[in-house]
Amino acid sequence: MIGNAGSFFKNPFITVEHYHSLKRSYPDIPGYSPVNQEVKVPAGWLIERCGWKGKTFQKIGVHKHQALVLVNYGGGSGDEIFQLSEKIKQSVEEKFGVKLMSEVNIF
To answer: CA 107, 91, 65: angle at the middle one, nearest 5?
Structure first.
């Protein structure tokens, strides 16, 4: 069993205009239920397209089957997981202009 906190990131909502802009560059980007002029985009898709899925960094990493799950292979620290989550957030924002929010509570 691999230590994890389940889904680490929330699926973000973006404007319809932003979604259509991304759709021109990434025709396979999924989007769900436009609500109040917003579209929900799967965080896992964004993270995977940034190349994070399956990446390992010594004692921590991103699950090989689910990009939303950050894992501790044993002996990794909470700070290491937090730092990895920040790098993922930064790369998604740089590539797609989308801010990810953590779903887990970080103290």
So the answer is: 80
Has residue 61 got a pLDDT over 80? yes
Nearest to 42, CA basis, from 52, 27, 32 = 32
Q: Which domains does the chain have, with CATH numbers?
A: 3-96 (3.90.78.10)
pLDDT in tens, 10-44: 999 999 999 999 999 999 999 987 767 899 999 99
Name the E strands within 1-107: 3-7, 13-15, 32-35, 38-40, 56-57, 60-62, 69-72
